[in-house]
Design brief:
- A 5-stranded mixed beta sheet has the order 4-3-5-14-6, covered by helices on one side. The protein has a 3-stranded antiparallel beta sheet with strand order 12-7-13. A two-stranded antiparallel ribbon has the order 1-2.
- A hairpin with a 4-residue loop joins β1 and β2.
- It folds into 3 domains: about 80 residues, Arc Repressor Mutant, subunit A, CATH 1.10.10; about 100 residues, 3-Layer(aba) Sandwich (D-Maltodextrin-Binding Protein, domain 2), CATH 3.40.190.10; about 100 residues, D-Maltodextrin-Binding Protein, domain 2 (3-Layer(aba) Sandwich), CATH 3.40.190.
- The chain is built from 9 helices and 14 strands.
- The protein has about 300 residues and is of the alpha/beta class.
- Keywords: DNA-binding, Transcription, Transcription regulation.
- This is Transcriptional regulator.
- It comes from Shewanella colwelliana.
- InterPro entries: LysR-type_TF_proteobact-type, LysR_HTH_N, LysR_subst-bd, WH-like_DNA-bd_sf, WH_DNA-bd_sf.
- Pfam families: HTH_1, LysR_substrate.
Amino acid sequence: MDSFEGIVEFIAVAETHGFSAAARQLGHSTSHVSRQIARLETRLGCALFARTTRSVSLTQAGQRYYQQCKNLLVGLQQANEQVINQQLELSGTLRVSAAGAFAEQYIAPVLIEFASQHPELTIDMDFNSRMVNFVEDGIDFAIRFGALQDSGLVARKLANRNMMAVASPDYLQQYGLPNHPRDLKHHSCIISNKDHWLFHDADSASEPEREINVKVQGRWRSNNVPAVIAACEQHLGIGYLPKSSFINALAKGSVVPILQPYWSSGLTSWIVYQNRRFLPMRARLAIDHLLTHFADWQE
């Protein structure tokens, strides 16, 4: 059994590319991880890592050993998870990265419901739009919106999102109603993440889904959806967000829809994660819970 000592630490260092990062992930000291790796290399009689002052990388022997050890660890994880699945008593901490009003208003309540079904489970939900390192940050899965970069991550479609353009009645009275997306070049727009807005060409009979890409500008920019909505309500300009973002403002009458024939459709909210073979049971069941909840969801 001594031959298994240090394998968990070895895999953690291989995947995080550093002893300190591996130690944080495992909850051990850096010196403990370093000792375990040194003992493992001594038993094997070869170096598994090439170390410099700036980086740690696998040697050729380390690469081969990593592939074999990873398969062994997957088998062990699957055996453990089968027992957990039989008991359906999830424990530990589920770490989720999300951002935006959709995550706050719709994702969080579903995960709260999931937590209530599993009293031994802790959920850590980080509302941050930055790109996460799933290994170093210990994130089980993330919720992301829009087009995804090809990063090698697994992506599961959660919900289709349709866009809506709005403005306050006072703004429209003062500056006029835009009749076409290209008219936005002459208006103040409330910018959230991007200053290029995509619409579809409602006037094109042959290509009904042809995109209209409009570069906009305005007096207010924020990556916070409530702040964008507030700016629209205070007559600072035109906003363009997923329809669900404006439900309360529309109900109050503080904003009204505009440019409706041109709204973009088919944008998506995604669940993204690293490698499904390494996904803990608590994450897999939480993802299934979300997918089931949003199966028939409409924007």
